[in-house]
Automatic annotation (TrEMBL):
Organism: Neobodo designis (Flagellated protozoan)
An MF annotation (GO) of this entry: ATP-dependent protein folding chaperone
Protein name per Swiss-Prot or TrEMBL: Uncharacterized protein
PROSITE patterns recorded: HSP70_1
Entry-linked Pfam families: HSP70
Keyword terms, alphabetized: ATP-binding, Nucleotide-binding
Length: 158
């Protein structure tokens, strides 16, 4: 209710006046606080206790993009994130995978993108948009995909 009254009062302020500018700044602050509250209620940051054993394993972070992906890890010596470069030295990997007849990954990244035109039925590029879809939904999506983005799979997974 307080916010609604504030917004109504802001609407009646004359444009260009000091009251209008302050109202706009306050409204933006309120929006930022709401965004922060919505985000913090969905995500939690777990702080590591210094007594916990950090030698349990190495973890990597993956930014799975529609076109390109990036991988990082925390350097144990410096405690800073480091990017895992691709074989060519780039910081990003193309989001592409080529499978063989036994459904095992044959190529990934830059190599898979390079053979996408010749092995279009076995290569999946930009597959992020397919994640979370059921098998029956793939038929509707396949019309949106280009020829190099079509992966032929039947109900038995062949």
């Amino acid at each position: 209710m307080l916010r609604r009254a504030f917004i109504l009062r802001m609407n009646y302020a004359q444009p260009g006046t000091m009251e209008s500018k302050l109202s706009q700044q306050r409204l933006e602050q309120m929006r930022q606080q709401e965004r922060l509250h919505r985000t913090s209620s969905r995500f939690t940051v777990a702080k590591m206790d210094e007594r916990q054993d950090t030698t349990q394993g190495t973890f990597i972070g993956i930014d799975l993009g529609t076109t390109n992906s990036c991988m990082t890890y925390i350097d144990p010596e410096s405690g800073m994130p480091k990017v895992i470069p691709s074989p060519s030295g780039s910081w990003v990997y193309p989001t592409a995978i080529t499978f063989d007849k036994q459904h095992t990954v044959r190529l990934c990244g830059e190599d898979a993108r390079a053979v996408a035109r010749t092995s279009s039925t076995a290569t999946l590029c930009s597959g992020k948009r397919l994640i979370g879809r059921r098998y029956g939904e793939l038929g509707r999506v396949s019309g949106q995909l280009g020829k190099t983005n079509t992966l032929h799979v039947n109900e038995r997974g062949e």
